[in-house]
Amino acid sequence: MLDANWPDSWRGAFRIELRAEAIGLAWRGWPVLPGVDPAPLTDGDDLTWRRPVPAIDGWREQLGTHAHEVATWFSDRTHSLLVATGTVLDAIEVDDELGKRACRLLRALGHPAPIIALPNGRWLFLTTVADRVPAELASRAGIQWHGKGSYIPLPPSPFQHGVVHWRVKPEVCGWQLPDATEVHDVLVRALAGADAAQLVHTTAA
């Protein structure tokens, strides 16, 4: 998964960083998993765009594995870092244009959310677990809800053309995931083209 032209020292440092992130998140109760590259796509589906898949068969039975065991998953080779959704957290995946609008609205409200950026221009907004998403989001082909039975890549997982990174780190939110309903509402408003001033005025009223 790492560039074959990278020096061994770089690959080693990257492997150590991935392992440290996995252990730290597992200690916080996040259901992390090791990932590997999937088989090449044949239909060019941008929503699945060569993203990692769990390296463990029966990965659903491994959720909640202790951090000590998680450490062994990342000790022998460089894996992607995944987190399962639907138990501790959910994620809403959008394109970068909608992501930027929603991010501005969340900042204007003073309620930042952890946000991940993928190398293919997709953004992931992390939230608490939800039972459903609004119809305005569910009906849009470019928006994907990652809930129960799904998973997402976490920084600093490598992709073919870049590395997953944080746009807004969880530390900014004090590691408190924002309520899913609030983030969904902001995304719906961003879809409708509401600007930050409008949203703040409406909320204050």
Automatic annotation (TrEMBL):
Domain DNA primase/polymerase bifunctional N-terminal: residue ranges: 22-181
Pfam family, one: Prim-Pol
Domain of life: Bacteria
Entry-linked InterPro entries: DNA_primase/pol_bifunc_N
Protein name as catalogued: Bifunctional DNA primase/polymerase
